[in-house]
Amino acid sequence: MPTLPKAIRQLTESFEKLPGIGPKSAQRLVFYLLHTPEASLQQFADRLIALKKDVVLCEVCHNVSERSPCSICDDAARDNTLLCVVEQPLDAIALESSGTYAGTYHVLHGAIAPLNNIGPDQLYLKDVVGRLEGVSELILATNPTMEGEATALYITELVRAKAHESLRITRIGHGLPIGADIEYADSMTLKRAMEGRREL
Amino acid sequence: MPTLPKAIRQLTESFEKLPGIGPKSAQRLVFYLLHTPEASLQQFADRLIALKKDVVLCEVCHNVSERSPCSICDDAARDNTLLCVVEQPLDAIALESSGTYAGTYHVLHGAIAPLNNIGPDQLYLKDVVGRLEGVSELILATNPTMEGEATALYITELVRAKAHESLRITRIGHGLPIGADIEYADSMTLKRAMEGRREL
């Protein structure tokens, strides 16, 4: 039986490996690319190769960066008494664009998820302890999911045992997001919102 | 404000250009790739470049192929008295895997869609006429959509004017797909299914 040309099948295979892209979507992407100019395919290929070459992980905070230490760790204007632990580089970017935080970050690159075989050793987690000198507050900004909560708990216990007495360990606030509707909020969010109520 | 490294932003941009991939999905794909080995990124890049280099359109039927004429047009065992017009290469592959057709194909690479500025001149349509010598039946297997129907009608008129008297022009059968439920079928499909009923 005649099949599709090998180049099409192989590229489809590469796209299929990406998360959230099934066999049909992969095929659709390849047929789309077949009609794009050769120069833009070349550019796409160059950028794929550049990804690993030009991106490094900062040796201090483990965020993605063009150099190590990264521009945040290297910035003397940042408040070094605040350290914020996040799961992913994109979480740090989101906090940066909110413009409310001027401290430093620590990027775990994931959360503890036993079901996916991700334990503390698979994350950049243990060296948080070595960064606590001079830090007055450690903010745990992992996601409010099962995995994120477990990770926050693990870090709390790890740090409590080894850190100086005066260190405050805080968890990022949970509650109703701005613009949300109490009617449609889930019960866990409402429970957290009630617990986290503040004096006006 | 510190942003993501340039290599990440540029690759995200390339992914965003693909159909059905928005900014968030693109970012997710790039961060996924950041954790894959360099060799598989290199392979992905090589396959992107190979796509345009190794795939040609058959000069006879315009299907995608590794050589021209393609393996179907070049196959002496195929029935050259049957010619089947399809919109896309994948349509021809689907008919091939059904194993019910042994004739040749003609791939239009689209359908007439005035709203998207696709007229007969943007398709491999006009040279169907030149392929009719020795053909006894021309099967129009464009999709049962507005565009596909318009294309089938256009080809019928084009061919009727120029072809030999004995040429049969047929349209692929429409009706209920196997496994479907009459209760949930749309009225247009039911209308076609009633029109296309056959003696048992």
Entry keywords:
6 strands; 200 residues; Dna Topoisomerase Vi A Subunit, Chain: A, domain 2; alpha/beta; 4-stranded parallel sheet; two-stranded antiparallel sheet; 10% strand; 6 helices; Helicase, Ruva Protein, domain 3; homodimer; globular
What does this protein look like?
- Two copies of one chain form a homodimer.
- Chain A is an alpha/beta fold and 200 residues long.
- Chain A folds into two domains: 6-49, Orthogonal Bundle (Helicase, Ruva Protein, domain 3), CATH 1.10.8.420; 78-195, 3-Layer(aba) Sandwich (Dna Topoisomerase Vi A Subunit, Chain: A, domain 2), CATH 3.40.1360.10.
- Helices cover 38% and strands 10% of the residues of chain A.
- Chain A is globular.
- The termini of chain A are far apart.
- The model of chain A has no long low-confidence stretch (mean pLDDT 91).
- Chains A and B meet through helix 1, helix 2, helix 3, strand 2 and helix 4 of A and helix 1, helix 2, helix 3, strand 2 and helix 4 of B.
The interface involving the most residues is between: A-B, 54 and 54 residues
Extract low-pLDDT stretches of chain A.
Answer: none
**Which percent range describes the beta-strand content of chain A?**
5-15%
Average residue-wise pLDDT of chain A: 91
End-to-end gap of chain A: 74 Å
> What oligomeric state is this?
homodimer
Discrete helix count of chain A: 6
Strand adjacency order, main sheet of chain A: 4-3-5-6
Number of domains of chain A: 2
- Classification by helices and strands of chain A: alpha/beta
- Major sheet characteristics of chain A: 4 strands, parallel
**CATH topology name of the largest domain in chain A:** Dna Topoisomerase Vi A Subunit, Chain: A, domain 2
Helical residues, percent of chain A: 25-40%
CATH architecture of the largest domain in chain A: 3-Layer(aba) Sandwich
CATH classification class of the largest domain in chain A = Alpha Beta
Radius of gyration of CA atoms of chain A, rounded to a whole number: 22 Å
Shape of chain A: globular
Helix-strand pattern of chain A: HHHEEEHEEHEH
